[in-house]
UniProtKB/TrEMBL annotation:
GO terms for cellular component: plasma membrane. InterPro entries: Mem_transp_PIN-like, Na+/solute_symporter_sf. It is a multi-pass membrane protein. It is found in: Cell membrane. This is AEC family transporter. It comes from Larsenimonas rhizosphaerae. Gene3D superfamilies: 1.20.1530.20. It holds the Pfam family Mem_trans. The keyword NAD does not apply. Keywords: Cell membrane, Membrane, Transmembrane, Transmembrane helix, Transport. Its main location: membrane.
Amino acid sequence: MFDFLTALWPLFALIVAGAVMKACRFPDDGFWAGADSLNYRVLFPALLFANLSTAPFGDPALPRLLAAVVLTLGVGTAGLWIARRQQGWKAARFGVWVQGCLRFNTYLGLATVGSLYGQEGLRLAAVVLGVLVPLVNILSVVALSMDNSLSLRRLMRPLLTNPLILACLAGALVNFSGIELRFGADRLVSLTAAASLPLGLLCVGAALRPRELTHELAPLCANSALRLLLFPTLAFLAAWLVHLPLMECTIVVLFFALPTAATAYALTRTMNGDSQLMAGLITLQTLLSAASLPLVLSLVGLLST
C-alpha cells in the first residue's frame, strides 16, 4: 500500500493546492473557468491523441480488457435502472445518480496510471477512455432526459462536439493508418499534452464545493459508497472472469474506483438536473477517494498475486 500512497499523494496534493488557491482567490475566479476550458478543449485532447496514436491495439489482452470494461458498465447500469424503478426517481435525480456512479475523473485517472505504469499504462488507459467516454456520456444524457422526449439530435450533439471523443477518434485513425507525426509535430503534441494533467488536477481542486456537503448526507454517502467501493468490486470480478494480467486488471478497476467527474456538474445544470446534489457528490467522492483509491489498488495487487 505504501507504493500506491507514494504514487498518489502528489496528485491529491495538487487537488488540495487548487482548492486552497481558489479559496485565496489566487488567481482570480476568472482564471479557473478559462483554465478548465483550455484543458478540456485543447490540452487534454492532445494528451488523449498522443497516447491513442501510439496505443498497442495489437496487445492480445486488449479485447479482454475492453470486455471487462463493458461488462462492468453494463451490470452497473442495469443495477441503477432497477434502483430507479424501485425508488421512483425523476430524471433530475436519476441523472445525478447515474453520473455519480458511472462518470469518472479522467485527469486523476490518467495521472494515477502514469504514476504507476508510465507510458505503457497511459496508452492502454487511453484505449479504455476511447470506449468509456462516449458510452458514459450517452448514458448520462439519457438518464437526465428520461422525463422528456429524447431526439437523436439531442443525444448525438454532446458526442459530436465532445473534444475528448474527437481526440480519441483522431488518435485511433492516425494509429490504424500508420501515419507518423514528423517535422516537430510529435514534439508539439507532446509539449501540449504535458501541461494537461497538473493543470487539470488544480482545476479539480478549485471546483470543489464543501458547502454542498451539508445537504442530503444519506444520498451523498450511499452514492459515494457505490462508486468508490461497489463498482471497483464489480470491475475486479469482471477482470478476474476474463483473466486479465495485473496491469490491465488494475487499470480497469481504477477507472471504476475514481471519483465522479467535475464536468458532471455542468451537464447536470444544463439539463435541469439536481445540480446541488451533483456538486456534493463531486466534492465528497473526491475527498473520500484520497483514502479509498490506495486501499482499492492495494487489494487488487494482493488478490491478483
